[in-house]
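User: Hi! I'm working on a homework problem where we have to compare a predicted structure to a textbook description. Could you give me the structure for the chain below?
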Amino acid sequence: MRRPSLLLLCLIPLAAAQARAPKLDDPRPNGHLSPRERCLCEAPERHPSWCEQPHEVRAFLQRYDDCEHWRGEEAPQGDRQRSKEIVQGANRACKGNDRRLTELRRRYQNVPAVAAVLSKLEFVHGP
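Assistant: Happy to help. Predicted structure tokens:
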């Protein structure tokens, strides 16, 4: 009878640790691409190590690049509709990126491949 209770005591801390772990949008273990997916993955030119990054880092890099795109976009003079679209796109893609970059840098500070990619990114300070 002692063995089942001992097993239960061992599983409780494991379950608690899993409950505290940040939930990823990606169902893959640790958010990394499988070896097959990595073979098929095409990294963007700007991020050559894209395919080796965890899902949450890949998602952030995509959002960061979208932010950079919108911030560099200029509307033709007098085109209010396009100006509005650019402002909305920048707000959507850039809002919260500084905070998220800080979180990711802290989370992956001991993972050199991820830390190197994140260290190259600059803070935007809003759209």
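For your comparison, note the following. The helical segments are 2-20, 35-40, 55-72, 80-94, 97-107, 112-119. The two ends are 62 Å apart (CA to CA). Good luck with the assignment!
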